[in-house]
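Any chance you could type out a protein's amino acid sequence plus the matching backbone structure tokens because I've never seen that pairing?

——
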Amino acid sequence: MLHEVSFRSFNERDEVQGWIYVPAAKPKGIVQIIHGFGEHSRRYLHMIVAFLDAGFIVAADDHVGHGKTAMVNDTWGDWGEKGCHTMMEDEHTLKELVCEKYPDLPYFLFGHSMGSFIARDYAAKYGDDLAGITICGTCGVFRNADVAEEALKKAVEEGHGKECNPEYAGTLLGWMCERCGEIRIGNEWICADPYVQTDHAEDPFDAFTKPTSNQAMYDFTQMMSVITGIEWAKKVPTTLPIYNIAGDQDPVGEYGKGVYEVANWLCDTGHNVKTRLYSGYRHEIHNYNAIKGDVEQGIIAFMNEVLEK
């Protein structure tokens, strides 16, 4: 069964487009997939099917400025004026909609890349409502974020928030192909498979090739800022199980260093966190044919282990 849902964004402007996938069997839990920057939730169909087959209801939406939500509202790359918690609060609204239809089931989050930032922000505010979270392709202290944040803040304060200056994105993200050899498209850092790269670049629901406003880019740096360090980890309930996964050639996680920074912030504040790095793989470990089944089964095993306790 598939429910299509629409709800008012926290930004008080957009109607967020979402989906609830229900297995043709008695569900044992719910997992909400939170997609990353410049993409959309249908890029996770393989994972959605794996979760359905494992007995989980799956919820997902397209963030403001992204995917079908951007198409419906004509707001590509524009996230609104309500700041860096907008997408997190939208994910909370989606969870409430799902729980109205399917109450009293254990609720998990899976967040990839920017989606992992959102999941971490969510856990700091609403973590008591969750059974567990998986963060995939996350970051610790993100390289150049402080420099880009300062420049973007200045641009927004000077009235250039609605404009798009690619120099800021270059400062923040331009280094990420440094280990990728020959650069053909500019997104090679996501996955070594050229078919995944092309699919990502040519997807009409994908915002990768569309401009992002200076205000949205500033909010993006703020999203990283609010989930950095011990102070963030202290806000996450220590009872919340966390599964932290990434490729060890992922620049977002500084090739493993940033992934372990997050794990250490959590461990140092008394959390139960399991970390796994996939050796030799870049950002989208769930899109490599060789390992995506293993990645999905690892997440399912984590959720099943939580349910068994």
